[in-house]
Amino acid sequence: MDVKERIKELTEILTKYDYHYHVLDEPLVDDATYDSLLAELKKLEKENPGLVLAHSPTKRVGGKVLAGFKAVQHGTPMLSLGNAFNSSDLEDFAIRAKKKTSQPLTYVAELKIDGLAVTLTYENGMLVRGATRGDGQTGEDITENLKKIKSIPLKLTQPVNIEVRGEVYMPKLAFDKLNEQRKQEEKPQFANPRNAAAGTLRQLDTSIVAKRNLSIFFYSIANSDEFGSTHSENLSALKELGFRVNPNYKKLSSIEEVYAYCNDWQQKRENLPYEIDGVVIKIDSLSIQRELGYTAKSPRWAIAYKFPAQRSFSKLLDVTFT
Ligand SMILES: NC(=O)c1cnc(OC2CCCC2)nc1N
After folding, report:
1. Nearest C-alpha to atom 13 of ligand 1 is from which residue?
2. pTM (predicted TM-score)
3. pLDDT tens readout for residues 38-51
4. What is this model's ipTM?
């Protein structure tokens, strides 16, 4: 085979290995096999720079120092969520929704990942832009940094035009290792994984992002009913397109079941390898979502159930023994 075909073949093989490792969390090959193929691709790309493909896995490592981040206007605003703190807040949410529609309500409950929201735009299945939430209307273009996150696909399984939303986060283990390393380097530590993720995405040196082990869970398709008529169908569509979706979401048919899900995960949250600060509840039907619409700043068809702040052991010690 000629070098162009070999570059194409290596790019597809390594993209598949990346997908299984970073999106499915199910590695297909060991690191040595992966690394030797990547080294071969790097060599061929160095010798044939004109043949490098846009979604090459070699773009995930190394990097450059940017001058700054451009402002980006969001086509669809990234709104904030209203909060619920107890079962009666949840009941109020359901009652308000029921006043505005005669149809029976089905909910989707999702873990509320404690990271930072980003929006990603794909054209013909290729990642063209990624941005922070900013003030909800205007964010910052951090495309180059987001390309270093291996669980963010550079090329989708279908050549679609789509804008998707997700939460970038730093796993607890990566956070502990990073703070340990910063302690050794006598640098200030990060207070929590969310701050560590936010600080990483603000880096102008993209090679730093590549080393920080950030990850992402995708949770919505922005403003589109081409991929399904319910939110849960949209989550399935996201998975089929190659996006990493948190597996713990559940379709529930009453607010009592929603409250049980919230309590269940409030107990289980400390066993998760990432931080969550609550549960996001969405009405499943997209037509009912459209019927309910938005308040000035939040959807009427979604709410965040917030867990009480988790006291770390050291904080507990401060309070108890001071
Ligand atoms: N942090 C999260 O895990 C999270 C944040 N936001 C949303 O939904 C947005 C989009 C539709 C209403 C609010 N879902 C989530 N799971």
Report:
1. 81
2. 0.94
3. 999 999 999 999 99
4. 0.97
